[in-house]
Write a structure and sequence with these properties.
By secondary structure, the chain is of the alpha+beta class. The chain folds into two domains: 7-36; 44-145, Immunoglobulin-like (Sandwich). Helix content is 23%, strand content 37%.
Length: 150
């Protein structure tokens, strides 16, 4: 037969459960939620192949006045994602050009899904924290970039 609890015992057990939940570090809980919510397990990973911020010293040697542009290039087996960082946006290009959608996944959460035009161009709001891009294009596997900061 099932054990029966009176109201005081039930409230005591609920209070103990809440205290136990509060004892778990917040970073641990967030990591677990992120792992559970990983929808792109079958997505192909695009690794950072170029970051202009890492090569600013080389540009300084070739020009007197350098433009402060930041560009990133991610490469996977089937797709290259080139990004120019502006003050408020990421302006991207898929190579080879193809239509599809792109979505930003920042540490603070998911952004809206944005269209990629027929020549592979897209614009997305610049994130304030680390981010990944998730690209979906007909005929190829989804591509997700490694984490980046701009």
């Amino acid at each position: 037969m099932a054990e029966r609890w009176d109201d005081d015992e039930l409230l005591g057990r609920l209070a103990a459960a809440l205290r136990a939940a509060d004892a778990v570090p917040r970073d641990f809980v967030e990591a677990a939620k992120t792992a559970y919510a990983w929808h792109g397990i079958d997505a192909e990973l695009a690794v950072l192949a170029y970051d202009s911020a890492q090569h600013e010293e080389d540009l300084a040697l070739t020009r007197a006045d350098t433009a402060h542009l930041h560009s990133l290039t991610f490469r996977s087996a089937e797709l290259t994602i080139e990004i120019e960082v502006t003050e408020r946006t990421l302006v991207g290009q898929l190579v080879p050009p193809r239509p599809g959608t792109v979505r930003i996944w920042a540490e603070s959460g998911w952004g809206p899904e944005m269209p990629v035009d027929e020549v592979g161009g897209f614009t997305i709001t610049k994130p304030v924290d680390r981010f990944r891009l998730w690209c979906r294009c007909p005929g190829i596997a989804d591509v997700i970039t490694t984490w980046a900061t701009v």
